[in-house]
Amino acid sequence: MNRKTSKVVIYTTAWCPYCIKAKALLSKKNINYTEIRVDLEPWQRSIMIEKSGGRRTVPQIFIDNEAIGGCADLFSLDQQRKLDDLFASI
């Protein structure tokens, strides 16, 4: 059973290396996520842009509906040990 209870949504495309890298980090940390592929569902891109405050690139990552940014932002949170803090509660 996964101890990570926060809701994570990641907007991606199949060919994006940063999307693959971000998903790999989430998986490594045993963090469940919902993936929304904007290449398969193009209408989702406008939702992503609106939710992220205008960001158009993928990945866009949201934790509990809060935009945290892209791959570099996710890795920065991890390097600062803040990513684990977001999922510390059971």
Automatic annotation (TrEMBL):
Domain Glutaredoxin: 8-68
GO BP annotation list: cell redox homeostasis; cellular response to oxidative stress
Any Pfam family the entry gives: Glutaredoxin
GO cellular component: cytoplasm
InterPro entries according to UniProt: GLR_AS (IPR011767), Glutaredoxin (IPR002109), Glutaredoxin_subgr (IPR014025), GRX_bact (IPR011900), Thioredoxin-like_sf (IPR036249)
Molecular-function GO terms, alphabetical: glutathione disulfide oxidoreductase activity
Record key words, sorted: Cytoplasm, Disulfide bond, Electron transport, Redox-active center, Transport
Function per UniProt: Has a glutathione-disulfide oxidoreductase activity in the presence of NADPH and glutathione reductase. Reduces low molecular weight disulfides and proteins.
Sequence similarity: Belongs to the glutaredoxin family.
The protein, known as: Glutaredoxin
Lineage: Bacteria, Pseudomonadati, Pseudomonadota, Gammaproteobacteria, Chromatiales
